[in-house]
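Entry 14. Structure prediction run on the chain below.
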Amino acid sequence: PSTGFRKVSYKEVPISGRLYKTLYHNITASRLVDYYEYKHNIAPRVSATISFDAFGYTRARSPLSINKFISKWLSDTLATGLIMQRRQQRVFNRCPRCNTWGEDRTHVLVCWDVRAKIIWDKHLLSLTNILQSSNTHPHIIEFITNGMAKFRRHPHGGHILALRDGWQQEQWNIGWCNFISGFISTSMISKQQEHYRTLGLRNKGKQWASKIILHNWSMIQKMWIGRNTVLHQKEMINSLSGEVLLDIDIEKEYDIGCAELPPVVHKWFNITKEQLLAQSTDYKKGWLLIIKTVKESLQIADYSLFATSRALRKWIGLA
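Output returned:
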């Protein structure tokens, strides 16, 4: 009869020694891969070609500020227009730089506002310099620079790139947005490692890939900071939060009048509607807040957007 422990494997890979630690690591890593497949729309057969070894190596050596930011980027929880609208924190989902509707994670990278384009062009130039200084294979340099340039012009496809080899096809299948997010094909890293051996260099393909990943993450963060600089200008915040709807609701409330409201509120109707609409946004928010608060305390029926929309209520200060 056989003696000893039975062989343990996970996904047909034998596990030997330090059973608990190794099994925990493999299961956690597998779940993380499944999560990235879901969040980045990557098919399992494609994710099998990604070097998660280089990805994990880079995360373990990245500055804390980059790691915290990129975690939100990879999980698609950054406060883009669509995410803020989904959270009911903002009415409009437009890009604060170019006013394109439906701002998502990809749009942050390909926004055609001149400020975003400057950051992108500087990044592509510095990335090219890094590739050249790292003795990157000429075909890889050409493939990456051309692919990223065409991705910016056509982020949702429609561009064709002549593919010479299998490593190019694998990276193409992974996608350029995912490449920028840190997902590089194992075959492209192997191609670079082979090139180092041809040159007689002792450089490692994994460190080469890590340098590219970290540089791309830094660019994403710069894009995000530039976008937020525009967003947090007061006029832009008001515009995205519902400034146009504010005037519409104020006009309706003014036309309804103060007959059903207590006398203490009547003084807020002592100016003409035109004068009221000409006031600052903060004044108009305060005016509407007072009217809405009183109506709610008296349980007066109100089905306007500022009474029902969580984002608009929060913007003017209604609980």
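The longest helix spans residues 205-231.
Filed with the rest of this week's runs.
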